[in-house]
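Predict the assembly for these four chains.
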Amino acid sequence: MVATLKDVAARAGVSVKTVSNVVNGYSFVTEDNRRRVQEAIDLLGYVPNIGARNLRKGRTGFLTLAVPELANPYFAELCGLVMNAAAEHDWTVLIEQTGGVRERELTVINAAHRSLVDAIILSPIGLQPTDLAEAAPGTPLVLLGERALSAPVHHVAIDNVAAASAATRHLLDLGHRRIAALGDQPGPHGTAALRLRGYQSALQAAGLSVDPALIVPAAAYSRAEGTAAMRRLLSLADPPDAVFCFNDMLAVGALSAARDRGLRVPEDVAVVGFDGVDEGNYSAPRLTTIAPDKAAIAEAAVGLVRAALQDGAGQPQDVVTPFTLITRESTRSFAH
Amino acid sequence: MVATLKDVAARAGVSVKTVSNVVNGYSFVTEDNRRRVQEAIDLLGYVPNIGARNLRKGRTGFLTLAVPELANPYFAELCGLVMNAAAEHDWTVLIEQTGGVRERELTVINAAHRSLVDAIILSPIGLQPTDLAEAAPGTPLVLLGERALSAPVHHVAIDNVAAASAATRHLLDLGHRRIAALGDQPGPHGTAALRLRGYQSALQAAGLSVDPALIVPAAAYSRAEGTAAMRRLLSLADPPDAVFCFNDMLAVGALSAARDRGLRVPEDVAVVGFDGVDEGNYSAPRLTTIAPDKAAIAEAAVGLVRAALQDGAGQPQDVVTPFTLITRESTRSFAH
DNA sequence: GAGAATCGTTACAACGTTGTACCTTGAACT
DNA sequence: AGTTCAAGGTACAACGTTGTAACGATTCTC
């Protein structure tokens, strides 16, 4: 059905290898042959069989990019950027959704499509440090946004502690004293733990104590969870005057909950998010947020993959990418 | 480096084919051999080479899903659902971004990774009806959300005209008379044309004339374009009292523009969106929208692929999936 | 003008897998 | 005892591609 090199060769009256040489731009082919082969290719609509090529060459031209969920715009945006960065080096990206479930993350790093991809980029959530021993040897692995694992693996991330601290300090600078942290999650190794640490250190640096009642968990980093968690905060006897949300989805949900209670943001309660998604620039009020340089993360991840494939297994790199605090209406107009 | 069937066979003391039989659960293998092979597999960490298997079997287990942009949550949500639906039938989805550019859509349908995928699901934007002649023969093609092409290709979509008409009628029922359409795009075959037709027919059915000044274009279906277009509308000498946006991103942008002008939604101007993305449930005010049943679209698309691969090239199917009008605050509290 | 160097092309093997055909073994029938 | 039969296993070829080695043809060198 589909044309192969053999078909093209037969039509052009040359050997299979000569066609292959034309396709790959190799070595020396007479102008005459090159033209005849090209005509045959166009005529038959020949397209190389990538699987066969991979089989022969060893390199596949594919990368796995595993994220918790595409429905989260942070990851959707990130996927798009990684795809672009990868395309610059002729890689195609195979996106997987893990749902943040440890078991599926394990599948990604130790087996799934191993023979089909040159490397794996994973944004882990449920993964435990010891799990990395299961990683497929020989396939470079780059972890995104997760530093606490601190295992000998390539990492790309912002400084989560510093970023969370900056967000909290921003609220402190505006005069807020009863600042909540929304989005805590179990486990000492997750992103939540790092952001919580940054939050706590900023409070302590300001001479404030940390009130456990103001640290609320979120089962998932979704808008719905943000709303639910914010409702709990607003129902406290002594509710917060500001909330640092561990991601923008939670923050959007929190804004919605505040609005439902008839509270003004930022006058009654200020809100800071984390992720810098486009959506936050259109919420009401517009969302102050920590914006990681997503393009830099994508570039760095692909760069690490390239380096790992060239040099073999060198020292695991730890790339720290920049972030900025974008102040918008959800905190800005507060006057103390 | 990576273990192959041969390595496993050597270790287990059986032939390569017997190992293959164990891996695939085929035919008759003694319990003893099966156990020994399994042990060798576990020990060596054997994983089948998918490329080689594809080469041998013809079927690849991959689908291409090409969407304009992952950053648009409608497509991000849709991708997630298609991936889930595909996973039920052991397919892995290869996501491509076309940017809505005709040339890249053409690449998708006629060449890219053709040999690597069993079928192609495309959400077209720039594609012209005649372009479908370029589609790779032998690889089933399913188009999403696009009916006007009306070529002999599988289609899955809601009834865009009816949906747009329902949205407009909703505004009419609420008493609005000066209703704008936001998001027009050139070309007689695009989604925009269908939604515009539905808008017009609803107006005419109500005995109203269509004011061309109230039909504003949008270069892209993004929040930023929605804001820009809404500004133009609000600057008219005789501005609209309601706006039907051709997608939710435009609507979110429009809400932002209205807010910047100090207008109340829906009291001063009502807004309806299209896509039913989660974000619209958290905007201020919450967005009334046409919500296509995205899960149904995903299921239908994968179902069509399955049918096409089983029956060969049968009659192209035209699947119409349901939608609902979700009324929320951006229109609801209007009293006329 | 004989040998060497270069260009252009080709046959062959191999990548890892599975379908086909065949072989072996033992048991169940006449 | 001879025949049939099925289960269990194997060897081989093939999928489409490219690297290697080798070959024929031309040109260059002294």
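Residues 14-18, 21, 27-30, 33, 52, 54-58, 115 of chain A lie near DNA strand C (CB under 10 Å from a C1'). The two ends of chain A are 74 Å apart (CA to CA).
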